[in-house]
Design a protein that fits this description.
The complex is a heterotrimer.
Chain A lengths: L1 H36 L16 H8 L1 H32 L6 H13 L2 H23 L2 H4 L9 H26 L3 H10 L3 H29 L3 H6 L11 H11 L3 H32 L1
Helix pairs in contact in A: 1-12, 2-12, 3-7, 3-9, 4-7, 5-7, 7-9, 9-12, 11-12
Chain B lengths: L1 H22 L11 E7 L5 H14 L3 E6 L4 H10 L6 E4 L3 H8 L17 H9 L11 E8 L1 E4 H7 L7 H13 L3 E3 L10 H11 L4 H6 L5 H4 L1 H11 L11 H9 L3 E4 L6 H7 L5 E4 L12 E11 L6 H11 L2 H11 L2 E2 L15 H5 L3 E2 L12 H10 L5 H34 L1
Parallel strand pairs in B: 1-2, 1-3, 6-7, 9-11
Antiparallel strand pairs in B: 3-9, 4-9, 4-10, 5-7, 5-8
Chain C lengths: L1 H5 L3 H10 L1 H15 L9 H5 L8 H10 L1 H36 L1 H11 L6 H14 L5 H11 L1 H12 L4 H9 L4 H12 L1 H17 L2 H7 L7 H7 L1 H4 L3 H36 L1
The chains are: A mainly alpha, B alpha/beta, C mainly alpha.
Chain lengths: 291, 432, 280
């Protein structure tokens, strides 16, 4: 018996080693290379020198990089909160006693299957031409100018598109969360005479808390990495007010000859994502235990 | 047993990889044995002209097959390919900082033995020389077409109202006011695409500052705060005569609006003419030199190499590539390109200056021209976005903020280059 | 009491039906514009939203030519389908080996953490080195994109498979082992079929991610003359110029395949997504 099991282990190793080789070659190795490049002034082509920590020092004094972090955080925070509130409301609605339940669920999921780039192009037209036209027709002054052209509000345009697409996914996850809440829990609370509001806070929310964790982590990560929508809606403008970190790394790393410098930026970005995810999971795990 | 298993699964993995690599497909030479020459151009707007040129070439050549690509975001794609070390044979790029960088990275081949080099107007060869960070021996680019940037205007509209081409800044402002009084939008700007901010910027800057400004700054002789102040101020004034929210509209939108007669003038380069004509084919367009100064004789026309061909150093079929270049440099072929794209030929000879550039003619003939200032700006510094930021900034000290940033950013983005140039100068001095 | 609770909430139903307008409106706008001619586009709301003068497919025909639609569609299908097949085969067996090994040995536990932590690695840090690396290995093409997807989706899928495995009792496999079947055989004969629901989930999540991805094909295979559907939209933006109608026809074409797939497999997709969340 013992010998058999070790044979089993050998098979496992035979499976895992090639997979690990693959994973290492295309995930870990490029990451290590990226870290090495981050200490050079490489343009991506031609020769280069090692410049020590200069790129990292520059990162912290570079106004453009700072701005892109601010934008990305602002966008991710607002996006995560909006998406989770909206999708929880949607999930409650779609999980209650309504008609056409599955058809409605199906329709609300559509934005999620469509690609961010094409959706961005469609919304770009909407923001540039349709909304200002509506503003002109009804004399609503804040609509008359394209929101994407405003340094202050362009990020909201990007946010609307991001949220429009992301709500669908999180709604489905919350619905499956709500379905794990046993019916008799509700009936019990109803007998207690709890109001709907109270029922939500005391009964429903604690039970779907694990799903809140999943959704928060998922949507924060996705919003932090925003790229497609920026590419199709604003290209980082106006006045560099909507440059996300991913977009800046792509734009200046590939196109701008800052291969080395943007590698350093990417390394920092990696640590930021890990830190935020770990933080979220620890905090939420504590919350779950408390409830 | 276990070793065998690992070996089996590793070779399975390898098999999958190989299978996928074979998916990759085509190689360098075409199936019928012709030598494949690949040209990547950075001008997507010229895609039709290039298609015609490539077709003609392939009809007349049995041994060489020419492919011309002009993808969207071509510069990014080209750089991505350089990063991949996947080089085309010829690149068609502008005479700008990218050319300087690629040349500095030793990517191009010396083509001084191509007899066509002798047919290029000297001023354009000089312009390319000026773009070399460190002076090189040899010739690395075949200048093809130049453009000129000033202000395009709607000739019919001007004639109808009896407006005249302005020659000084004062006349220009008076004209704008007149146009406005006639109930017409004087200017249309497409500042959503940040690069369009550079068009009036360059056109103003060549008239208002030393063409050698960037070099002078690198040598520590001046600052941008001193050199660009008037340019920056005048950029702001232009906004008063443009549509209310120019940051909402891109290059395409502005071209369309101008073509539809929504504005009388459009400060952009001659390269926009084909785009405008695609919307309104019968439009009567002319352009004039940006009247940046208070005296006509101080004005300078902003003109630079819009398209030039460079051969990649590692190109295998030099003869085939030269054949393509010779073909491209035939008068007839240049004319196809010019008819489609407008602009000025870099080749000596009787090429007609297009009607759309008529009011610039005297400047071109008398060589009162200077290269685009932005041809010296590093692309990662994104001066275009900086200008857009500056124009959006409503505060009173916006000019100071902008120029200060220009000077500090310049030092940071150029420090490797400044060091390199100084090192080179040091070596030259030591050698003497 | 029970009866009352079962009653349909019509107010909510109507609100939710009205809410679908937020989904339909942008799509309606896109379809309408795609059918119009440039001359029909005026600068007011009606110009963009009223019905076209005639419903003609000319824009679509032209867009297909300009963007080389069938070719891009073929590439998108090839990349997505191959990725799915490889993901199901490779990730499931990796998940199996790691998951089963993990229960007994610490070394497998470490491997599990190593692979799953890959979820936090943003593509941006890998992008630039990968562009160089794939090119050097001759993988700057569709094959490279597929391979990268297989690696990028490994962390999530391994997590899903190992999670699902916890529900499958080991006793079954041990019984088969005693009967003399090799672990390899046991896996394909017994375990692999039992993980069917998870295969569906993995297939759907991987498909949605790869089909719409822009960045990977953009940096890995741009300039090779091959496009995926989203990449074609990006690359032909300038060719559309100011002809929004042509551009929108092309956008609609790019959206149609996944919409058809969704309409056919809607139930499986929604279940798959929900499944992924619950098990993950």
């Amino acid at each position: 018996m013992k010998k058999k099991m070790s044979n089993r282990d050998k098979t496992f190793w035979a499976i895992i080693i090639p997979v690990l080789v693959l994973f290492f070659t295309f995930n870990t190795l490029p990451m290590i290379k990226g870290i090495i490049y981050s200490f050079t002034n490489y343009k991506g082509y031609g020769s280069y020198d090692y410049v020590g920590f200069r790129n990292y020092i520059d990162l912290f004094s570079d106004a453009r990089v700072g701005k892109s972090y601010l934008f990305t955080f602002k966008y991710a925070l607002a996006g995560t909160i909006l998406v989770n509130v909206l999708s929880l409301i949607m999930a409650l609605g779609l999980n209650s006693r309504i008609r056409f339940k599955s058809a409605l669920r199906g329709i609300y999921f559509v934005p999620n299957i469509l690609g961010g780039l094409v959706i961005g192009y469609i919304f770009s037209f909407f923001f540039t031409y349709i909304l200002p036209a509506v503003g002109n027709t009804f004399h609503i002054s804040f609509l008359q100018n394209s929101i994407l052209a405003s340094e202050k509000y362009a990020w909201i345009g990007v946010l609307i598109v991001g949220v429009w697409q992301a709500v669908a996914m999180n709604t489905i996850i919350y619905i499956s969360g709500l379905q794990t809440v046993p019916q008799d829990v509700y009936e019990a609370s109803m007998l207690d005479g709890a109001s709907k509001w109270k029922e939500f806070w005391k009964v429903t929310l604690p039970l779907v808390m694990p799903f809140v964790t999943i959704n928060l982590v998922l949507s924060t990560k996705n919003f932090l990495m925003v790229f497609d929508q920026i590419m199709s809606l604003t290209k980082g403008g106006p006045a560099q007010s909507t440059e996300s970190i991913s977009y800046l790394i792509y734009r200046n790393g590939m196109d701008g000859g800052q291969f080395g410098f943007q590698s350093a930026n990417a390394v920092i970005f990696f640590f930021v994502i890990v830190a935020i995810s770990v933080f979220q999971m620890t905090v939420m795990n504590k919350k779950e235990e408390q409830l | 047993m276990s070793k065998k298993k690992i070996a089996v699964s590793l070779s399975l993995l390898l098999g999958i990889l190989m299978g996928m690599a074979s998916l990759a497909g085509c190689g360098k030479s075409t199936s019928d044995g012709r030598v494949e020459v690949e040209l990547v151009s950075y001008k997507p707007e010229a895609v039709e002209a290039f298609a015609e040129i490539a077709e003609r070439f392939n009809e007349t050549h049995d041994d060489i097959h020419l492919t011309i690509d002009s993808p969207n975001e071509a510069m990014t794609i080209l750089k991505t390919r350089f990063i991949r070390e996947d080089y085309p044979d010829i690149v068609g790029i502008g005479g700008d900082i990218n050319y300087s960088n690629f040349l500095d990275a030793d990517l191009f081949m010396d083509i001084s033995d191509l007899e066509e080099i002798g047919m290029v107007k000297q001023s354009y060869l000089d312009m390319d020389k000026g773009l070399e960070f460190i002076p090189q021996e040899g010739v690395y680019a075949l200048p093809y077409a130049a453009n000129a940037a000033g202000i395009l205007y709607n000739r019919d509209m001007f004639e109808e109202h009896g407006w005249k081409v302005p020659e000084t800044w004062e006349e220009f402002i008076v004209l704008c006011k007149e146009i406005e009084a006639a109930g017409i939008q004087p200017l249309y700007l497409g500042y959503k695409d940040t690069w369009t901010c550079l068009a009036p910027w360059n056109a103003l800057a060549v008239g208002l500052s030393d063409p050698d400004t960037c070099n002078q700054v690198n040598m520590g002789n001046t600052t941008f705060a001193a050199a660009y102040r008037e340019t920056a101020e005048k950029m702001k004034i232009l906004l008063d005569y443009a549509e209310p929210n120019p940051y909402a509209y891109g290059y395409n939108d502005a071209c369309t609006a101008f073509a539809r007669g929504e504005a009388a003038m459009y400060p952009i380069g001659s390269y926009a003419i084909p785009q405008i004509k695609s919307v309104n084919p019968t439009m009567n367009i002319d352009s004039f030199t940006f009247p940046a100064n208070d005296a006509e004789e101080d004005n300078v026309l902003n003109s630079g190499i819009d398209l030039q061909f460079c051969v990649m150093k590692n190109c295998e079929n030099k003869e085939a590539v030269y054949e393509v270049l010779r073909f491209l440099y035939e008068d007839e072929i240049i004319q196809i390109y010019l008819d489609n794209q407008g602009g000025i030929a870099c080749k000596k000879g009787d090429f007609e200056i297009p009607a759309e550039l008529e009011s610039m003619k005297s400047y071109i003939e008398n060589d009162r021209m200077a290269d685009y200032q932005d041809h010296y700006y590093p692309s990662e510094m994104s001066v275009d976005a900086m200008i857009q930021t500056f124009l959006l900034d409503d505060s009173d000290d916006s000019v100071d903020t902008f120029l200060e940033r220009f000077d500090t950013d310049w030092k940071r983005y150029n420090r490797d280059l400044i060091r390199k140039v100084q090192q080179y100068q040091q070596e030259m001095e030591d050698a003497q | 009491m029970m009866k009352k609770a079962q009653k349909t909430n019509w107010v909510l139903t109507i609100i939710l039906i009205l809410g679908t307008l937020t989904v339909f409106f942008p799509l309606y706008m896109a379809v309408i514009i795609a059918f119009k001619q440039p001359s029909e586009m005026t600068n007011d709301v009606a110009g963009a939203l009223s019905f076209p003068e005639r419903w003609s497919l000319d824009n679509f025909k032209q867009a297909m030519e300009v963007t080389d639609f069938w070719h891009s569609l073929g590439n998108s299908l090839l990349i997505t389908l191959t990725t799915i097949v490889l993901a199901i085969l490779i990730h499931s067996i990796a998940g199996y080996a790691i998951g089963r090994g993990m229960a007994k040995k610490k070394s497998f536990r470490l491997i599990y953490l190593y692979v799953v932590s890959g979820m936090f690695v943003p593509f941006s840090i890998l992008m630039m080195p990968l562009v160089k690396q794939t090119a050097q290995m001759g993988l700057g093409n569709r094959a490279g994109v597929i391979l990268l997807y297989v690696v990028f989706y490994m962390p999530m899928n391994v997590l899903l498979y190992t999670g699902y495995l916890k529900n499958i009792p080991v006793a079954l496999e041990e019984a088969a082992d005693i009967d003399g079947a090799s672990t390899w055989k046991t896996y394909w004969k017994i375990v692999f079929p039992m993980m069917m629901p998870m295969h569906a989930t993995v297939a759907i999540l991987t498909a949605l991610g790869t089909w719409n991805d822009v960045m990977t094909p953009l940096v890995i295979m741009s300039g090779t003359g091959q496009n995926t559907l989203p990449l074609a939209q990006l690359n032909f933006q300038t060719q559309f110029g100011t002809n929004y109608n042509l551009a929108f026809a092309s956008y609609i074409l790019a959206l149609i395949p996944i919409l058809i797939f969704y309409i056919i497999c809607q139930k499986q997709i929604l279940n798959g997504v929900a499944n992924g969340a619950v098990k993950g």
